[in-house]
Amino acid sequence: MSRRKRTQKAPTPKDNTIQFNEFVKKKQTVQMIPRSLNQEEYIDNLLNDEKLMVFATGPAGTGKTLLAVMAAIKAFKEGKVEKIVVTRPAVGVDDEKHGFLPGDLNAKMAPWTRPIFDVLEEYYSTKTIEGFIKENIIEISPLAFMRGRTFKNAYIVADEMQNATPNQMKMLLTRLGEGSMMAVTGDIRQADRRDNDNGLLDFKTLLSNFSNSQYIAITEFANKDIERHPAVKEVLSIYGE
Question: Over the stretch 26-48, which tens digit does the pLDDT of each residue have?
Fold first, then answer.
């Protein structure tokens, strides 16, 4: 009597669980991959240890804030800084007055810092971010409250700075302390400030007249650099931008 040859089956995994440590490691890896030549320049500036203040101006959807926050996360993960400071002017609410909004200062600033936290949440859980805020590893500091401070070993992300005054911009830029870096973003065409009262435009003009800056770099984005939905480009074209 002939014996039938058994086919060898592949071993069945004991369970259906993922390798959590590997998943976390991949999730927390910060990969800054440019999608345009201007983004490549911007990333090079952000990752250049000699450029301590990096400016990015241009229309929405070009990656200004996204890449600035990614650079901050990368610097924190690599131990180059000890904390991340988030700031921006809150011009839309009675010119920097936050008192009538409910909650503490972080809650009051939530409507303005949401785009930044959207990026943070791609790398950290909400619970972890809340812990960072509690431990002051992530600090939300409204622009109006930064006077007199000096930030050491920190990465400062200053967003929507087209709504800062020249005095506010000067005050912000002089907050940089030892071991710190700063990314400043804004779209002058969406400014609530007039040209003669616009801190971002004022500093761009001053910088253009200053030759061979050692510590400051600027990338200017255009509509061709928009990486959001193509409809965004069309909207800007309709508005004549």
Answer: 456 789 999 999 999 999 999 99
Going from the C-alpha of 69 to that of each of 24, 32, 39, 87, the distances in angstroms are 19, 11, 14, 12
Fold (CATH) for 48-238:
Rossmann fold (3.40.50)
The token duo for 72 is 């901050």
Q: Where are the beta strands (DSSP E) in 14-119?
A: 53-57, 83-87
Listed range (82-91, 100-109, 122-131) with the worst mean pLDDT: 100-109
| Pairing verdict, β 53-57 and 216-220 | parallel
Q: What is the per-residue pLDDT for 67? A: 97
In sequence order, the β-bridge partners of residue 55 are 184, 218
Pairing of strands 83-87, 154-158: parallel
pTM over 0.70: yes
Conformation bin of residue 25: beta by default, left when phi > 0, alpha when psi is -120 to 50: alpha
Q: What are phi and psi for residue 33, nearest 5 degrees? A: -110, 120
